[in-house]
Structure formats: structure tokens, C-alpha cells
Automatic annotation (TrEMBL):
<keyword id="KW-0812">Transmembrane</keyword>
<protein>
    <submittedName>
        <fullName>LemA family protein</fullName>
    </submittedName>
</protein>
<dbReference type="GO" id="GO:0016020">
    <property type="term" value="C:membrane"/>
</dbReference>
<feature type="transmembrane region" description="Helical">
    <location>
        <begin position="6"/>
        <end position="25"/>
    </location>
</feature>
<comment type="similarity">
    <text>Belongs to the LemA family.</text>
</comment>
<dbReference type="InterPro" id="IPR023353">
    <property type="entry name" value="LemA-like_dom_sf"/>
</dbReference>
<keyword id="KW-0472">Membrane</keyword>
<dbReference type="InterPro" id="IPR007156">
    <property type="entry name" value="MamQ_LemA"/>
</dbReference>
<keyword id="KW-1133">Transmembrane helix</keyword>
<dbReference type="Pfam" id="PF04011">
    <property type="entry name" value="LemA"/>
</dbReference>
Amino acid sequence: MGLLIGLGLIVLIGIFWITSYNRLVKYRNWVEESWAQIDVQLKRRFDLIPNLVETVKGYAKHEQETLAKVVELRNQITSPQNSRQEQIHANNELSGALRQLFALREAYPDLKASNNFNMLQEELAGTENKIAYARQLYNKTVMEYNTKIQSIPTNIIASVHNFTSRDMLETPAAERENVKVTF
């Protein structure tokens, strides 16, 4: 009788271990999938930028520094040796450079009137919104995953199988400051 109880207990622990492990794998895969969604949107923006730069080049020939910065940051994002945090840092800098590029339209009335520029600007604005949503989803997924690997009793299974916590994406300090509006 004691042997059956012992075997039953071992089977229950085994079932618990397997289901907990599988749940951790599922959460880890969700983290990877949510990162892939960010990557898809960054690729979309990556593909739109050359068209935008070429459009602006025709109107703003002496704004080469801004255009060169946009192209340089675009290339940093796709560099395979960069970590996720480095890619996100370059992405944040690129967002600032794109804002500078869009500010050029006020200085160049012909650019402001360009349908091609306006269409590209709308596409990029939509892509920026999708990137923001994908970042929110990633942070939510990472939070759920980290909670699972830090909670008892799954933290034991997580440590045995080397599940490690992931970092959330953070907003740069410059973007946290209050916006100053002057008229």
C-alpha cells in the first residue's frame, strides 16, 4: 500500500513538473514571438526609409547631415552583431532623426506639397504606432514570463532548466520629459 502511495506521489510530481516546464516553454516562446513582431515593424520602417530619404533629397539638398544620420541609424538597427537593447537604442535614435526629417517639411513648401512625401510620412507614422503597440505587447509578455519563472514552485523548475529572466524595453529619458509647447 505504501508503495502505491509513493508511486502515485512520484507520478503526480512528474505530471506537475512536465506541465510546469511546458508552460514555461510556452511563455518563453511568446516572448520570442512578441520580439519578432517588433522586428517585423522595424523591417517595415527599414524598407520605407530609403524612399523617404530619396524624396527629401530632391527638395532639401543642403540637409545632407540629417539624411546621412537617418541612413546610418537605419543600418545600425539591422546589424546582426547588435543585441536587442542596442537595436532598440538605435531605433529610439532613429525615431528622433525621423522627427527632424519631418520637421524639414515646414522649411520646404515644395516638400510639404509633395504627395509622395505625405504618403510616406503617413506610412511611417502608422508604422511607428505599430512599433509602439508591439513594444507594449513585448513588455507585457516579458512581465508574464518573468513572473512565471520567479514564482514558487515554478521558479525551481525554471532554475533547473535554465530559464532566465528577460529585460523589458524602456523609454529613453529624453522622451519621458514634458513636452514644451510655445506659441
